[in-house]
Specification:
The protein is mainly α. The protein is 75% helix and 0% strand. The chain has one domain. Keywords: Membrane, Transmembrane, Transmembrane helix.
Length: 288
Amino acid sequence: MTAATQNLSGVDTSPHPIHVSYASLGLGALGLLASGIGRLLFWSSGFEVRTSWALVVLGPILMAIAITLHIEHLGKRIGRAPVVLGIVGLIIWSLTSLPFLLDPKLYSLQDHANWLRINWAGFAAARVLFSLSFFLVLARKESLLEHGEMDAARKIHASFATLTYAAVGLLLYGLAGFSSLSGSGQYGSRFTYGLLVLGPALIAIAIINHIDHLSRVIGKPAVVCGVLGAGLWAVSVLPIAIKPSLGEFAGNWDKITLYGFNGGGLILGGVSVALVLLRKRSQDASAA
């Protein structure tokens, strides 16, 4: 390695190759974009349009397929259990919206609150599974260090702090969903709204904390899009955390946050993955 690829501290600053396949990156980007566009359509067109539900059902399934295609590499690096938990979480995320895809009118029934609680509970369960996945990666990293594992293919580059921020952030995000089940609206109390602010904020901090390595692997524009997406989720709910009455069911700000800004955050995630795909193509073209 030449001096040109190191900073003054001797840390490797050279770009890293992207090992994810085009298929995985493409499906991941399409999955995030579909989920985000579906939620934006809820905001703009209401909840009885089958196309919107089709997109929010399809999106997580595409992401699950993307991870499945990359399972061998991921399993070797972070362990198969965290990968499986992530896939199961995505499937649950998709299935929670399936009843509304089959019959969009369920949303307008007088007792629709029960259907929405089932939907939100599945949403929450998915995020808790994502959190458990990160906690398992954290435990694996500790185990590898204790055993002096030196295999570069199994090295987990994310720091303990980064993994902890991500795991706790997703856990709080999931707990917010479960907390909302006892409320009268789609969210609930100020405590619930607070979790919906803190959870995504910690996810954004996790990305920022790992920004140097991520920038070398996927590029800084992709990282910035990821941070902005998570930050958008957190900031959008902040007014409701300050004044919970803004979040009453069917309130304008409730729809803006849960569907507008949340959809925008997912779309930014999709753009981030698409940028990674373009970076990989550029790397492959340069190596040819």
